[in-house]
Amino acid sequence: MRWLGHLLVATVALLVALPFVWMAYAAFIPPEAVFSGDIFGQLGFSLANFEVLGRGGFWEGFWGRLLFSVLLTGGVTLLQLTTGFLAAYAIKEGTKILPFFLVLLAIPVELLLVPLYGLLVGLKILDTLWALVLPFAASPFIVYLLFQGMRTVPEELLEAARLDGAGHRVLLTRILLPLLRPQLIAAGVLAFAAHWNLVLYPRIVAGSKELKTVQTWITDLQRQNPADWGPLSAAALAATLPLVIIYLLYERRIVETFEEGLKG
Amino acid sequence: MGRNNAYWFALPAVALLGLFLLYPFLDVLRFSTWDWSGLSEPKVIGLENYRNILRDPDFYNSLRITLIFGVMTLIPFVILSILLALALDGQPYERPIKALLFLPGLVTLGGATVAWYTLFSPEYGALASVLPVPRWDQSPFWALVLIMLFTIWRHIGYGVLVVSARLKAIPKTLLEAAAVDGATASQAFRYITLPLLRPAITFLVVIGTVLTLQGYTAVFLLTRGGPFGGTEVLGYYLYKTGFEVGRLGYAAALTVIILLLTLAFALAQARLLREEK
Fold first, then answer.
1. Which pTM was predicted?
2. DSSP strand pairing (B34-35 vs B43-44)
3. Residue A99's domain is classified under what CATH number?
4. CATH homologous superfamily of domain B70-275?
5. pLDDT-derived band of residue A49, with 50, 70 and 90 as boundaries?
6. A114 CB near a chain B CB, below 8 Å?
7. What is the ipTM of this complex?
8. Which residues form the ABC transmembrane type-1 domain (chain A) (predicted)?
9. Contact present, B255 and A114 (Cβ < 8 Å)
10. Residue A33 within a domain
11. Which residue range is the domain that position A96 belongs to?
């Protein structure tokens, strides 16, 4: 029986890894190999695909879009962590609004495309940077994760600091911020991935050239040139690598945070 | 309420979520009574949109496809999650493999679909030069299989994590006692492990149903509803009517119906799986 388990794990692991391996391989395929159709025959290594990505203006080309997306999603992540951290602190200090966030957790964001669009039209921020930022500036999931972390901080510690005359600001920045570092990192990676992976929403609410995210850019390229694998794979790899690296750095924290969340 | 006015710190989150999550969620009811393209002046038409949906053959077709897709995806997803969690439990490679399985859910969706697309394209795809790849660009069935594989690929890490967390909560003494009493490994699994895993399985089935009823990003990226509308799941039908055809009022009414369907399914499943105990 045991070897059957090993076999299952090995098979699944290989299949799960296959698209990643292929992505890394295809990004460096020499363009000739793609056109001749002989993909595995002549092993070659070429950076030509990455050069193609740099064509056109910088800001509207791939690298500009990648930079824009990193800054945008990074900013949104910081906002989410800030609003979440403050809200978690309020709950920890006795404000009874945890149920409010738990109810919001059940609302499927993916289905709110139509009413959100209507709201953005009403607020006159459709097709502006705000449309990509404001709806994601707070997240009930992040509030919940950070509150779970704050619950483990002993009350006596905060009480002692308060007796020494510490105000909200000292408690938040000197005590809770360093203690919650692991949770903030895990929540940050998850928040980053969630915003980074929006596909349909940015396409609908912010379609203009200077607001295009890297996802939209890749999807557009795939639609225009579905056969042009080399540059497509290079773009896919370059857009995926930052996330993979962040994930591998903090993988232990992220998986553990998820497991803790499942126990609650 | 609270000490030292700490409740003020919740204000940014509460205000933002109230405006951009709770309000749209309730507002969708109002939009659903409109005849509205997003650009035009809205015209109030009462329940007309709902009446039209109930007579809309495309809606029923899309509902049928969604249900087929849901069953096709959920059963292998849950079974694979259980088998993998069991196979991984306590093995030296448990941590790295779990980390690998979790990765597809986080990486760039657009990039992942590019890899899948170039890998699995029939005729010209990378795999097609090694082994025959079914024509999912012509056969709705194989297109659904492709979306199913992609969906499982993205979420299997989470599924394994859910089962595995539950598995670790089962006291080892229970299984040892069973072994002492002469139970075989398969008996112990059938009568001890499996019943104790039930909450995790219920959770996966309910979450999985919600995701399959509402998810459509993979469809958008891989098949765009084709071939011949064969992968047009409800979520994608909603997106298409709202933002490609430009009938936002109709799409709002569809949103309400999908929400109600999700709620009904989730409640029914939760009850069914609990009663079987």
1. 0.89
2. antiparallel
3. 1.10.3720.10
4. MetI-like (1.10.3720.10)
5. confident
6. yes
7. 0.87
8. 66-250
9. yes
10. no
11. 47-263
